[in-house]
Design goal:
The chain has about 325 residues and is of the alpha/beta class. About 40% of the residues lie in helices and about 15% in strands. The chain has an eight-stranded parallel beta sheet with strand order 9-8-7-6-5-4-3-10. It has a two-stranded antiparallel sheet with strand order 1-2. Helix 3 links the parallel strand 5 and strand 6. Keywords: Oxidoreductase. This is Aldo/keto reductase. InterPro entries: AKR, AKR_Detox_Biosynth, NAD(P)_OxRdtase_dom_sf, NADP_OxRdtase_dom.
Amino acid sequence: MKYTYLGRSGMQVSLLGLGTNSFGKRADEQTSARILHHAIDSGINFIDTANIYAGTESERIIGQALKGRRDQVVLTTKAGLVARSDSPNGRGSSRYHLQQELENSLKRLQTDYVDLYQIHTFDPNTPLEETLRTLDDMVRAGKVRYIGASNYAAWELMKALGISDLRGYERFVSNHFSYSLADRTPERELVPMCLDQGVGIIPYFPLAGGILTGKYTEKSSAPAGSRAETDPNFQRFLEDHNVTLGQQVADLAAETGHAPSALSIAWLMNRPAVSTVIVGATRTEQLDDNLRSLDIEINTELAEKLGEISDRFIYSKPFATYRIE
């Protein structure tokens, strides 16, 4: 396994991280525990979850499965998106909501601290000063070690960093957003900003929900067991230009002797400011396929070919983003 520093922090994270959105949903508890242990045994130390994944099941399953192994991982969770639709304070990044959700997460994860606490999306209704002071208090209390943003636009993150520097608050060390060959829109503003400010990038949807594995050959086709079959909402991502890119990546992977998924992840690992690439799994074999990305060298020729087929996605719409209405 290869390790990198998370932004300018002194904490090292595995270049490949484990996303657990499927735990308790597309992977049952026993399968999820096997995937988690296999990831740790393979050298993956970055485990990513959120308070709302599979309801709250993802955190609960992780807490149970990590017994005796908590000190082997960098454990990160999030809050900010809708946790309770029946409460006016059931979302956002107010002090009220964040303190409540952190305590709930700690109980489910069966730990007294998280290594990275991420704000799941920018909250336009709460002053950043309130959010950042709350996060600073959490770090000082020893319940959080580092803080990160997620789904923040470049101006939102830059404003947050400016306030932290001015007030002496804990600073965001990372930003978690959609980034892949099918979504290069972050390269317009987010990537340069993160490079300038020493913020680590944590991409999600590195395989565009499976499109970059090459398994989708046309918009109307959904392979058995694929996300498009199990989640009808995913159909909206199967636009012609995305499916075409998936096939182009598959063709290039075949030419170079690599799996399309591994090649796509390896490209992302080599992008500026990327600290760890989050991949999900519903089987241990799927995780093994993604681990092969660590052995791929993206040389100049291969990088140019990948650029040729994906450069148009720099100026397309984002593949995915999650915001508070």
